[in-house]
Automatic annotation (TrEMBL):
Native source organism of the sequence: Wenjunlia vitaminophila
Family matches, as Gene3D superfamilies: AhpD-like (1.20.1290.10)
Protein name: Alkylhydroperoxidase
Swiss-Prot/TrEMBL keywords: Oxidoreductase, Peroxidase
GO molecular function, one term: peroxiredoxin activity
Domain Carboxymuconolactone decarboxylase-like: 19-96
PANTHER family documented for this protein: 4-CARBOXYMUCONOLACTONE DECARBOXYLASE FAMILY PROTEIN (AFU_ORTHOLOGUE AFUA_6G11590), BLL7811 PROTEIN
Length: 160
């Protein structure tokens, strides 16, 4: 599967990508823990089959000190013991917020209650925005067949 379109070689697409990345800065600079941000992004990307984003968020998390064990268990977080209750709440929100079409209620009250239990309003605002943003990023990359494997941690640090 070859890439269909390079989002960074087109003026319109590049303008959009820069604004999109700037929106992500709000989340990155929020009080939501960086490890939670990467785990949530990784889980949504796994569900959506986005190789580019899986590559990016796995490498960024590892570069930030995340363990290989935790990264390898994100896809099976319910069946593992390495995530905190707060992280489990965030991962549940990521899954339910990503699989909106699979459940008539969207995010369940039970999941929302767990998120409320573990995060303050600023962190929740960042978490909800993150789930929306990573799902949009997954769709952009999957549509144009942007494949994983070439990402280097920090490569977009100067992009915004």
């Amino acid at each position: 599967m070859d890439p269909r379109f390079n989002m960074f070689d087109n003026e319109i697409a590049t303008k959009f990508a820069k604004r999109f990345a700037n929106a992500g800065l709000v989340i990155q600079q929020s009080p939501l823990p960086k490890s939670t941000q990467e785990l949530v992004s990784l889980r949504a990307s796994q569900i959506n089959g986005c190789g580019w984003c899986i590559d990016m968020h796995t490498k960024e998390a590892a570069a930030a000190g995340e363990s290989a064990v935790r990264l390898n268990l994100v896809a099976a977080w319910r069946e593992s013991t390495v995530f905190t209750d707060a992280e489990r709440a965030a991962l549940a929100l990521a899954e339910e917020g990503t699989r909106l079409a699979d459940a008539h209620q969207g995010v369940s009250d039970e999941t929302w209650d767990q998120v409320r239990k573990h995060y303050d309003d600023d962190q929740i605002g960042a978490l909800v925005a993150l789930v929306a943003l990573i799902n949009a990023a997954n769709r952009l990359a999957v549509i144009v067949h942007q494949r994983g494997g070439s990402y280097e941690p920090g490569m977009f640090a100067s992009f915004t």
